[in-house]
Amino acid sequence: MVSTKPVTTASLKEQKKNGEKIVMLTAYDYPSANLAEEAGVDMILVGDSLGMVVLGYDSTIPVTLDDMIHHTKAVTRGASRAFVVTDLPFLTYHGTIEETLRNAGRIMQEGLAKAVKIEGGAELAPLIRRCTQAGIPVVGHIGLTPQSVHQLGGYKVQGKTPEAAQKLLDDAKALEEAGVFALVMECVPEQLATLISKQLSIPTIGIGAGAGCDGQVLVYHDILGYGGGHVPKFVKRYGEAGAIIHQAIAQYAHEVRNGAFPAAEHTFTIKEEVIGQLYGEGVKQ
Ligand SMILES: Nc1nc(=O)c2c([nH]1)NC[C@@H]1CN(c3ccc(C(=O)N[C@@H](CCC(=O)O)C(=O)O)cc3)CN21
Ligand SMILES: CC(C)C(=O)C(=O)O
Ligand SMILES: [Mg+2]
C-alpha cells in the first residue's frame, strides 16, 4: 500500500533509518508527473537531463534557468505527494551567493519545487550553508556530474583510482556537513557508493551506483523505452512506450489515408433539413 502522506526531507531520512528504499524518477511535464505520482514514487527530479531527453540537445549544458522553471511549473501541478527536486542548470550557482540564492529562489517561488540539486563536491559547502540558512533544501550530486562533461572527457564511471575514490568520500562527507539533505551519486562503483552510503546519515540516491545506495533514480524515458539517443548501461527498461507510440501513430496515419478515420462516432452532425435548406439556397459545395 502506497502512503498518501506528502514526502518530506524528514520522512526521507526516516526511510533511510528504517532501511526502506527511496524511489526517485525524473519527470519533465504534467502527465509524466501525474503518472509518477500515481505509481507511488517518493521523489520526482526535474533533471536538467530534460535538455537531452525532451529538448534534443546533446548535453545538459545549453539548458537555462528559465527552461528549468517552465518544466518545474508543469511537474509541480501534477504532483502533490511526491517531493519535487529541480536541478540548478549549468552556471547558475557559480557566481555570487546572492545570484545563486536568487536562482534557487526562482525555482522554488515560480516553479514551486521543494528543493534544488547542485553538482559538485566540498567546494560548494559555503553555498549550501547559505541556501539551507535561507530555507532552501539542497540535494548534492557527485561522481559523474554531466554539467562538467567536457572536463571529465565523457560520461564515464568516476572514483576508480584510490585518490578519486578518497575524494568522492571526502566530498560526500563535506556535503553532508554543509547541510545537503540527500546526495545523488552517479556512475560510481558499487563498493564505493555502498561505503559512502554507510558513512552518511542522509539518504544517498544512486544512478549507476549499485544496490547499496538508500534509493535509486533513473530517467523517465529510459525506463519506459521512450526516446532515442544513447541509453546508459545502468538503465533497466520496464516498458516499450516508444514502440507502442510508434505503432499508434502509424495506424492513425494509415487510417487517415484509407478513410477509416474519422468514423461516425468521431463526427458531429446537424439535422438533415438544416443542411437541406442550405443546399436548396444554393450554398457552394
Ligand atoms: N537519457 C538520459 N539518461 C540519463 O541517465 C542521463 C541523460 N540522458 N543525460 C544526462 C545524464 C548523462 N548520463 C549518462 C550518459 C551516458 C553514460 C554512459 O554512456 N556511460 C557508459 C559508461 C562508460 C564507462 O564505462 O566509464 C555506459 O556504457 O553506460 C552515462 C551517464 C546520465 N544522464
Ligand atoms: C540523472 C539525474 C541524476 C540528473 O541529474 C538528471 O536527470 O538531470
Ligand atoms: Mg541533472
Helix count? 12
Q: Tell me the domain tally.
A: 2
Distance between the termini: 60 Å
Query: What is the percent of helical residues?
Result: 40-55%
Rg, alpha carbons: 24 Å
* 3D shape: elongated
Predict the CATH topology of the largest domain.
Answer: TIM Barrel
CATH superfamily of the largest domain: Phosphoenolpyruvate-binding domains
Q: Which whole number gives the mean pLDDT?
A: 96
Strand content: 5-15%
Characteristic key phrases:
binds magnesium ion; eight-stranded parallel β-barrel; elongated; alpha/beta; about 280 residues; 2 domains; binds 3-methyl-2-oxobutanoic acid
What does this structure look like?
The protein is of the alpha/beta class. It folds into two domains: 9-239, TIM Barrel (Alpha-Beta Barrel); 244-280, no CATH class. The protein has twelve helices and eight strands. The chain has helices spanning 9-17, 30-38, 50-53, 65-78, 97-109, 125-133, 149-152, 162-178, 190-199, 220-224, 241-258, 272-280, and strands at residues 22-26, 43-46, 83-87, 115-119, 138-143, 182-186, 204-207, 215-218. Strands 1-2-3-4-5-6-7-8 form an eight-stranded parallel barrel, surrounded by seven helices. α2 (30-38) links the parallel β1 (22-26) and β2. Bound molecules: 5,10-methenyl-6,7,8-trihydrofolic acid (MHF), 3-methyl-2-oxobutanoic acid and magnesium ion. Residues 47-49, 60, 87, 146 line the site of magnesium ion. Residues 26, 45, 47-49, 87, 184, 186, 207, 217, 219 line the site of 3-methyl-2-oxobutanoic acid. Keywords: Cytoplasm, Magnesium, Metal-binding, Methyltransferase, Pantothenate biosynthesis, Transferase.
